[in-house]
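Hello, quick one for you while I still have it in my head. A protein chain has come my way and I'm curious about its shape. Can you walk me through what the tokens say about the fold? No rush at all, and the record is pasted right below.
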Amino acid sequence: MRILFAEDERDLNDIVTRKLEAGGYSVDSCFNGREALDCLDCGEYDGIILDIMMPEADGFQVLESLRRRGKNTPVLFLTARDSVADRVKGLDGGANDYLIKPFSLEELMARLRAMTRRPFGLADNVLRVEDLTLDRTSHEVRRGGVEIGLSAKEYALLEYMMCNRGVVLSREKIEDHIWNFDYQGGTNAVDVYVSYLRKKVDEGHSRKLIHTVRGSGYVLK
């Protein structure tokens, strides 16, 4: 999944970005509210983490702009301000969760997993399609009980397709959610990684789960 992370404290920004990337997320990180708004103009995100006290535009202003555009992307606020009034303002303004600094990185990851599963109607962190399972906590993927080894990008693609099971995803839609603005790969990257996944997920099984919809994209079902 693709995450927007806005935090003006550069050391914290770097630490959290590296943790998110290690967790399989594609991350666009920025250091102020204006940069966050620019990213929202150009990209699609599955989750947003916002520091409240940022220069140029604070987290409340970024959230207000997001919701005014009709976007329901889940938002988690990070802040050193722990007053009830601030929490109420953020939650009433459309934030989905709130984490007070200093915080545990593992708690941040758990809250992000919980927040991003809600739009897909997921009850827990284990995704299931037929005999294929993906555990979003351990990153363990199995088919028919046999573990499948995936690269970080293969895992991200499979997770996105399983969250959208039965939905035809265009190449552009997949690219928008799996790669960030720093991506420098070729234009056929989606096709290449779908091919990798097919070999690992479907090869040797009579029941194929990954399908091409000619002229439209791919679907997992």
Summary: The chain has a mean pLDDT of 90. Residues 75 and 95 are 5 Å apart (CA to CA).
